Amino acid sequence: MTKVAVFGAGSWGTAFSMVLADGGSEVSLWGRREEVCSTINDKHENSDYLPGIALPPTIRATPDPERALDGADVVVFAVPSQSFRENLSEWRDLIPGHAVMVSLMKGVELGTIKRMSQVIAEVTDAGPERIAVVSGPNLSKEIARREPAASVVACQDETVARLLQDLCHTPAFRPYSSVDVLGCEVGGAYKNVVALSVGMAVGLGFGDNTTASVITRGLAETARLGMAQGANPLTLMGLAGLGDLVATCSSPLSRNRTFGENLGKGMTTDDIYASTRQVAEGAKSCSSLLEMARQTGVDAPIAEHVDAVVGGRMTATDMMASFIARDTKAETD
């Protein structure tokens, strides 16, 4: 039985722990709050994030990172991207030297414009064969309910990607392997920004024509940014690109779409942060992704407008009007 340490006892970290346990691994789930860990161990339920869902008995939770990492062959990270570097710096010396590190996070670091795999490499000095990502249309509550879903496991070392693929292949979860780490991360991060924009359209009361238009142009924007950095275009048309984009933009379970809806209804960013403990990565990463696009020389109107609304410099109504008023051009330009 493979020992896997999962860092982050929120909804996605807990749901992915279930996938790993269903795949036959022994899972040690690290959570910051001792009361959450105690509930998981005593009641086999994460009542704060996934109430009413029974967790496999092979998941044990602990607030002690050293205990979580003891004997781990794989270490999975599911913590907020903007605090990841600081957290990983605290855990670095405890991580076994052979362990493969897997990012479930879909954000870009403020200030450095680094993807999470790059943060792992910088902080731990690990080679690319020890760094992987998982990305796809994976809404936490549906995964926890064991509804059928697919995803992508990417590592530059194809052998490692396939080993990780085996660990999370279950009767309800179908992973595909890839070597395109960059494409998976760009697709996973950028779809959150697009989902914010779609949510604003919904919050303003607009219908399917509007949301489909934003999703489609968002995919084009994502593809431009990813391909400009060397991503495989097929990755961005696949589960980690289009698949994740459709799920996040279409579902009311999506944190980012919900955040956008609230902006469309007139709430401020501070109001929304005060009303929930869930993190909407798009709101945190939109400025980083906009800066990434500018540094890459890619036109990114959705990221530009979303960043302005999140930052309070524009309203959602003005954003939608501005989209329509942009100069017309050929669709493939």
Mind explaining what this structure looks like?
- The protein has 333 residues and is α/β, with parallel strands linked by helices.
- The chain folds into two domains: 3-179, 3-Layer(aba) Sandwich (Rossmann fold), CATH 3.40.50; 182-325, N-(1-d-carboxylethyl)-l-norvaline Dehydrogenase, domain 2, CATH 1.10.1040.10.
- Helices cover 52% and strands 12% of the residues.
- The protein has 16 helices and eight strands.
- The protein has helices at residues 11-22, 34-43, 65-69, 84-91, 116-124, 140-144, 158-167, 181-203, 208-228, 233-236, 239-250, 255-264, 269-275, 281-296, 301-310, 316-325; strands at residues 3-7, 26-30, 59-62, 74-77, 100-103, 131-135, 149-155, 173-178.
- It has an eight-stranded mixed sheet, sandwiched between helices.
- Helix 5 (116-124) links the parallel strand 5 (100-103) and strand 6.
- Helix 9 (208-228) runs antiparallel to helix 11 (239-250).
- The chain is globular, with a radius of gyration of 19 Å.
- 53% of the residues are buried.
- The model has no long low-confidence stretch (mean pLDDT 96).
